[in-house]
Amino acid sequence: MFGLYKGMVSPLYGQIGINAIVFGIHGNVLKALGNRDIKSQFFAGAVAGGVQSVIASPMELVKIRFQMQGEGVLNNNKLTAANQKYFYDSPTDCLKKIYKHEGGAKGLFRGMSLTLVRCLNSFGIYFASYDFLCKKTGAVTEECVNVWKLLLCGGTAGSICWLIAYPTDVIKTRQQMDGMGRTKYKGVIDCTLKSIHEEGYRVLFRGLNATLLRAFPTNAATLATVTVTSKMLEQNC
Hints:
The chain is built from nine helices and no strands. The chain is mainly α. Keywords: Membrane, Mitochondrion, Repeat, Transmembrane, Transmembrane helix, Transport.
């Protein structure tokens, strides 16, 4: 049972900070632009996504390493399969050992370039599509907020975001896994080409169904909650 939640602590704590950064920056950029049209929504979302990627990259690295423990792939830099199963005792221990054995800060930010690309695009699309859908459905008006419509718009926006970002995320994840043993990939392009050559183009969308099943309810709840809370705060100011 506990294996189903392996690597959960890192994203659980990190997600609190990430959401605070994303929605805080998005709102402030929109305020600075003085416009809330779809282009401004995309730009503000992209800026927010770019900033939060600095936290997301090492956080996701730790999550992936914890999830991979027990696979017997650590055999490099004096780390062997024999001691790999319980190699990381905690997220902090994981960060320290990656820093020590994998080139310092370079190791901690393995996959950062792809995380940045993914977040710039996906968060821009995320906020732009949510705003577009809310306006089209009339989910938010001056008089009231329709929570059911907000949930539908939020879930749809989250699904669209992940549908577009998923191939980039697959390659990013493979790069971050690569540091656990003998390095297989020389870089982003090499990782992409080898993955497609060995497993076909379908590898870029492997696991997408499960991701979309998670994305819809998660983003429906997140965006609806933020929108309703923001509306309440505006009315009380």
